[in-house]
Amino acid sequence: MAHRGDRDEVGERGEHREQSEPQEISPLTLNRLSFYLRCLRQLQELGKARISSQEMAQRYHLSATQIRKDLAQFGEFGIRGVGYQIDELAEHLDALLGLDRHHPMVIVGMGNLGSALARYVGFNHGAFQVVAGVDNDPRKIGKAVAGFTIRDATELADVVRASGALIGVLTVPSEAAQHYYDALADAGVRGVLNFATVRVKPRPGVPLKNVDLRINLEELAFFLKE
Amino acid sequence: MAHRGDRDEVGERGEHREQSEPQEISPLTLNRLSFYLRCLRQLQELGKARISSQEMAQRYHLSATQIRKDLAQFGEFGIRGVGYQIDELAEHLDALLGLDRHHPMVIVGMGNLGSALARYVGFNHGAFQVVAGVDNDPRKIGKAVAGFTIRDATELADVVRASGALIGVLTVPSEAAQHYYDALADAGVRGVLNFATVRVKPRPGVPLKNVDLRINLEELAFFLKE
Fold this sequence. Notes:
The first copy, chain A, is an alpha/beta fold. Helix content of chain A is 43%, strand content 15%. Chain A has a six-stranded parallel sheet with strand order 7-4-3-8-9-10, sandwiched between helices. A two-stranded antiparallel sheet of chain A has the order 1-2.
């Protein structure tokens, strides 16, 4: 079902689900875990060592029951009356979300968006780093960007092998998205982040995440005064 | 609390909450409502007229109880044994999320990211449209991009007035983000979407949403095979 219909978050989340690993987890749970991890990181910065589900719920406007339920699925972390050890829980969530591993990335399509992402701080710290970029525009090939030289898109397989890229980032025109998803999968990347506004059919074993920047606008719109 | 600590989704969501309108709603609820709306739109495309919370839960891997609870807060939509009228519910969620209103937007910072967003489909259909862009680089000012001409950033107030922009999109270097948030607020925009990777202090009445593109990578990383 998730493959039908137009490109949207629904399908994308559905795909994730279909391809999810032994540990079944819903997209909204994953979103919450990611959110909890951000909360814990902020608490670490504030120098806190422990927090109860009640306090965490209050601080971040969450449900304490939901927090306990979500975290209980992955083992026993909280101690009744004491709360969660923040470092321990953050470390576990890091590992659960795969953030304790290094994820070198290759960008396919070094236009405006690709170039911006190559320099984007969030794509270049911690577990993630953009290590290579390709394009099919001869005017771009050979140019140095953010620590690497843009290579010819026809050499993608070689670029992936040489750079060790595990994630492919698609910032190509819509009509080229499926072709380069397939090329990335053939080249051996383990997952693809797609910024192209088109539905791409993923293969088993090479998960696809479609990025919909519009959702940020929709979330903002809710808070605008009439 | 939400204003302390480094830039991350936590703080941003916290700000939203602090500034939220009379109808109090948690960031995770908002995220779910936005997700439900996407589900409903897909169901509309599939030609469905009604759906029960159970069927919706099953299709999209959600909790039927959660769906009923979330939607019940905003009025009575479901009919027991019949389900939700999809068009009616989608229309209500559209209105609730402010998507039935037109949101012209101005982009501040017409570099790679700003230029990409000016042409981005998701920022240019339905309720949203990029109508203007400014930069402080003389080489960019006067250039035509996606239906408008880049104006001088010092003329921002005039640009906002003349274009009727209601949302400002910040794609400036970190060090300039606060300055241009303030300039946008002074110019009368109703909300700001911030792509700069720095914490901006918002004013009451001009909600700020920080976009963290990294979260997409984190969500993808979870699904990568070892």
